[in-house]
Amino acid sequence: MVGEEEEMRKPAWPTRVVIKYVLLQIPSFVLWILVLILLCKWFNLPLWLVWGMGLLWAAKDALLFPFVWRAYHTDRPEDQHPLIGTHGIAEQPLSPSGYIRIHGTLWRAEMAEGKGLVERGETVSVRSTEGLTLIVQPLPERTRAFE
């Protein structure tokens, strides 16, 4: 029950994510207002149109936030690296680097320090990432996949 109460008290979106989203929307909003002001002066448009279009732009950002907020929430490593913990099959010997296949996709991989060598066909587990390179370690049972 305590976990449920805690979950209910949590805000829908972390404050840090909302602030990050708003701050990243300010430059485009300011640019949009400047363009509207220039159009207003060049074409003699009414000032209420500038305010209205500015409000529409802000409303667009507010309406899109529920759909894109996860892209601004970078505090959860499992969201940043969904392959961590998955298993792959070595397509070539990893000594210390080579390629592995995970769910049909070929990935560049390097062995974690001090984890030895892996032969072709053995199963490895993804431990971390460095850019687009997966850092892997052999599974304890050192299984071989069907070739």
- Class of secondary structure makeup: alpha+beta
Please write the string of helix (H) and strand (E) elements: HHHHEEEEE
Compute the number of strand runs.
5
Shape: elongated
Can you put this structure into words, describing what you see?
The chain has 147 residues and is α+β, with helices and mostly antiparallel strands. It has 2 domains: 2-75, no CATH class; 80-138, OB fold (Dihydrolipoamide Acetyltransferase, E2P) (Beta Barrel), CATH 2.40.50.140. 43% of the residues lie in helices and 21% in strands. It contains 4 helices and 5 strands; from the N terminus they run ααααβββββ. It has helices spanning 2-9, 15-43, 47-68, 77-80, and strands spanning 87-90, 97-102, 105-111, 123-130, 133-138. Strands 1-2-3-5-4 form a 5-stranded mixed beta barrel. A hairpin with a 2-residue loop joins strand 4 and strand 5. Helix 2 runs antiparallel to helix 3 (47-68). The chain is elongated. The two termini are 50 Å apart.
Outline:
It is built from four helices and five strands. By secondary structure, it is of the alpha+beta class. It folds into two domains: 2-75, no CATH class; 80-138, Nucleic acid-binding proteins (OB fold (Dihydrolipoamide Acetyltransferase, E2P), Beta Barrel).
Keywords for this structure?
single chain; alpha+beta; OB fold (Dihydrolipoamide Acetyltransferase, E2P); 147 residues; elongated; five-stranded mixed barrel; 43% helix
What layout of secondary structure does this protein have?
Blueprint: H1 2-9, H2 15-43, H3 47-68, H4 77-80, E1 87-90, E2 97-102, E3 105-111, E4 123-130, E5 133-138
Parallel strand pairs: 3-5
Antiparallel strand pairs: 1-2, 1-4, 2-3, 4-5
